[in-house]
Each structure stands twice: as structure tokens, then as C-alpha cells.
Amino acid sequence: MRIVILGSGGVGGYFGGRLAAAGADVIFVARGAQLAALRSNGLTIVSSRGNVHLAPVRTAQSIAEIETADLVMICVKLWDTETVARSLVPIAQRGAAIVSFQNGVQKDDLLRKYLPADAVMGGVCYIAATISEPGVIGHTGSIQRLVFGEYGGRRSARGEAFLQACLKAGIDAELSDGIETPIWEKFVFLVGFSGTTARFGAPIGPIREDPEKRALLLEAMREVVSVGRARGVPLRPEFAQERLAFCDTLPAQTTSSMHVDLQRGKPLELPWLSGAVVDFGAELGIATPANAAIVAALTPYVHGRQ
Fold first, then answer.
1. Is residue 286's pLDDT more than 70?
2. Within a domain: 306
3. Does the pLDDT at position 306 exceed 70?
4. Same domain, 296 and 187
5. By residue range, what is the domain housing residue 237?
6. Which of 275, 280, 190 is nearest to 231 (CA)?
7. Is 246 part of any domain?
8. Per-residue pLDDT, 123
9. Which residues lie closer than 8 Å to 19 by C-beta, 6 or more apart?
């Protein structure tokens, strides 16, 4: 199975590296220092699930350099989604499946504006991984999970093939027959987790131990459940409390990619996380004060250091 990793940072580098190490035909699309490092030194993964070093690895600077693929994993930041969607039109028309493992719940609607609807699969990932230095992916904790599936719930040969490739690579993977729900379930967690770790500039440990910060984390997630249920997503009313209990199981040093981006002076995915919740709430007449507070605190940094 030929798999293209579009965005070879923490998520793409980790899962692409695992797939390549297990024998999948993987091409990493990267740029800048990451591309240079992959071409000169290969890819290294440092993880409690086992370290990996791959040299050489197949790379490209642009998706336009790749004629065909069975599946493209989109792992770029959300602000690049529209540009990426336009670039994927030729390879999707040649039969590639497109599955986004980006954050948020609006990504696939945007992809379908440019790509054939039947080319787009739904996907969600669970991992804490970042680029430690060019060519090196650092994985925090032990969670490394992919959930994906066809919209409409049908089983497909491409979904089954990708599942087998992931399992062979030792990735915790699931082929879902109702992919919209796990995408929203992650959104519940991610809005609270990313919003509070970035807002307070701290990993999850100090946040869950402080009563006021913990309350904001829970309320931000409750607001996502409320807007999701109002939009017809079958989220359980108590789901936010369950995600808070999950937060209590994470290593204390676990933090979000948005917190890391804030520290590094990079743009933030805020408009598609807490910002999206505030927008959904305004459309539906649902108050979202916790997420509004997170948006207000982080908006000055949303474009990164200028």
C-alpha cells in the first residue's frame, strides 16, 4: 500500500515512520529543515513504544511530485487545509483516498469543497508527539491511536487495507462505521486540553490539580458536548466528565501541540478549536463562556510571532 504523509511533523512523522518501518511504501512530504534532515539523516522516532531509525526515507517537497497513491494522510496544521485541499485534486482524481488526521470538526467539510466526496474518509488520531529537532520525533506517553472510516458507515477495501497496514506497524487502530462520533469525541477533549494548557502555559498536571483551572477545563469540554448534541452528534451528556477522568490518567508532563506552538512562537489552531465552539454556540444560541475566555486570552498570539 502506497501511503503519502502530507505534513511530516509530530503526527505524520510518527505514524508514517511506524508504517514505513513495518514495510509500507511511505512517501513523506515535508519542507524546510525537516525535509533537509529527512533527506540527509533519515527519520528517528524516540518513544516508550520503541525507538525507530529509518535511513533512507522516501521524500517529496510537494504532493505534485507524486503521481499516484492509495491513501494520503493529511497531518498539516489546520490553517494550511484549504491550500492542501487544492493541491490534492489531481491525486484524488487518480484514485487516492484522502484521510485527514488534523484536529477539529470542520476539516472534512473544507476538503469536500475541492475534492470528490467519495475520496474523503474521516479520521482522528490520539498522540502526543512533536519534532524534537529536525528529523527527530519525540513521543510523550504511550498513546498512539488512529481511528478512521468511510462517511456513511460502509466498509471499504481501502479502509480494510489501511487497517491491516496500521496493525502490522504496531499502531493501535480502529476502522469505524460511524466516524463522525469519534471525531467529535476527540474534539471535546482537545478543545479543553489544548485551550487550558495553552491558556495557562502549563502541562496537564498543574491544571488538573488547581481547582479553578480544573473547572475551566471541565466547562470548556461541557460546552463542546452541548453544541455537538445540538448539532445532532450522539454525545453522551456525561461525556465531558469522562474526559476529565481521562485527563487524570495522563502523565503530568503531557501537553498539547497548541501549547508547544505558543512556546515556539508559531500560529495557533485556536480559531478551529475553542474559536469554533464559540462560533457554533453563537449560531445555536448556546452560551460558551469558558471557550470565549480561552479565545480572549489567546487571540493576541493566534498568528504567532510576527
1. yes
2. no
3. no
4. yes
5. 181-301
6. 280
7. yes
8. 98
9. 3, 26, 165, 166, 169, 171
